[in-house]
Amino acid sequence: MRVDTDEAEIIERVAALDVGKAEVVCCVRVPGPGGRRMQEVRTVSTMTAALLALGDWLASLGVTRVVMEATSDYWRAPFYLLEDWFETWLVNAHDVKHLPGRPKTDRLDAVWLCKVAERQMLRPSFVPPPAIRALRDLTRYRVDPGWGSGGAGHRWPRMCGRVGVGGGRPMGRWAPSSEVAARMRSRSHR
Asked: Distance (Å, rounded) from C-alpha 146 to C-alpha 133?
């Protein structure tokens, strides 16, 4: 009988993000002295500038893979900003929740997700390439948003959040420009 000396293959430089509406908790695990693993956890805002600074920090550490859990639509801004720099994985929350030992706080969740990701115990979800995403957004919104409907005021903040505008803070009620409002009034008098 032969002794198997293969060690589990570990992703050498990996980061995991726990994404919330207003902040992202990032855990990075990299090789340390003596074959040990070093980790650092940071919390940043979901604003574009903070996410770009996070990307710079991850690049400076030589991170190759960034893993994040699909949480509502909040994953979109970090994913879209980091996908050009890193191998970015979006993992299904259903798959992640069924692994044992899941903690309850954002910070511990990011650390746990990073440890699971470095051991390759996750699989990525399919995220269409940017051209297909743009086409999907266009076809989903191909009908006139309907200025008279109440739904348009709810759709705009969500669409703005997809492209990184708004930063998790309430944007208030959307109001049309004076030119659009004049057209709306003229249509209603017909």
From this structure: 23
